[in-house]
Amino acid sequence: MDYSKYEIYDFDNVSAFNMYTGAKERSYQVHWHSYGEIVLVGPGETNIYKVNQKTYSLVEDDFLIAWPMETHAIIDADREKSLVVQFSNSFMNSLFDLQRIMHFYRGLHVICINNHRALAGELKTIFLKMKDIFYSGADNRELRCCMLLMEFMLTIDKHRDEFAPELKPGARNGYTDDAMRRMIMVTDYIKNNLTADDLSQTVMAEKAGISKDYFSRMFKNLTGMNYSKWLNMIRLEKATELLATDDMTLTEVAMLSGFQSIPSFNRVFHEEKGMAPGEYRALFVGK
To answer: Is the entire prediction scored with pTM above 0.85?
Structure first.
């Protein structure tokens, strides 16, 4: 088995969806990539995974989620019967609702069957449908699997209140189509203009044509985090993309990602990733 393909599968240029199962080895070193992974945990007494700085001991039919750009490792787990879905970050960013879900649940890495039995059962059913379709060899399998991936994400969101108070759920309905379009316009603008002189919440609210207070409430409800936290997350996503090569200095990476200083870049990066930007780059460059 060529394990290198498992970790460097090029979703941005090749595919939006992949599925994997059957690996014999029980461990895999700390790594990261631009796509996300969802693992349906296999059987056995020991299933230990790590995402970012936290280690999880899981049981059969639990789910583990590693969002795009997150460091993760398999410490000791059944990989032969576990089922892994890999999804493109570009696909998740293609629809605002998927963006919202990904940002809101960024802190969610485990769905335990013992704590969320009904939800885990629904998600497993979707996973098994994906498996049947993916391995069928049908010409339209990627499209059908992506539709099921959207159903998977929407099913999690349907059970949103189960994850309180960690995710601090708030009202997410009642926004007009016009308000949603304005928010999409602003978030797209930010992603494409991270080096702009002023990306403050006040200026973005003005760009959206709504009050700062309404913008703040709506932003928190749709993304699950306040504006400054979300902006740092978007800057980190850009930084991790740039860190995938050694063509730029760390200073250039920081500046092109919108960070105003190297200390600020290092602090935010370490808080989120648990390591320095240079250490993070070393996990990717030269693989």
So the answer is: no
Mean pLDDT score across all residues of the chain:
86
Pick one of 3.40.50.150, 1.10.10.60, 1.25.40.10, 3.40.630.10 as the CATH number of 177-282. Answer: 1.10.10.60
What is the residue-wise DSSP string for the chain? --HHHHHH--TTTT-SEEEEE----S-EEEE--SSEEEEE--SSS--EEEETTEEEE--TT-EEEE-TT--EEEEE---SS-EEEEE-HHHHTTSHHHHHHHHHTTT--EE-TTTSHHHHHHHHHHHHHHHHHHTTT-TTHHHHHHHHHHHHHHHHHHTGGGGTTTT---------HHHHHHHHHHHHHHHH-TT-S---HHHHHHHHTS-HHHHHHHHHHHHSS-HHHHHHHHHHHHHHHHTTSSSS-HHHHHHHTT-S-HHHHHHHHHHHHSS-HHHHHHTTTT-
Res 1 pLDDT > 50: no
The architecture that CATH gives domain 3-163 is Sandwich (2.60)
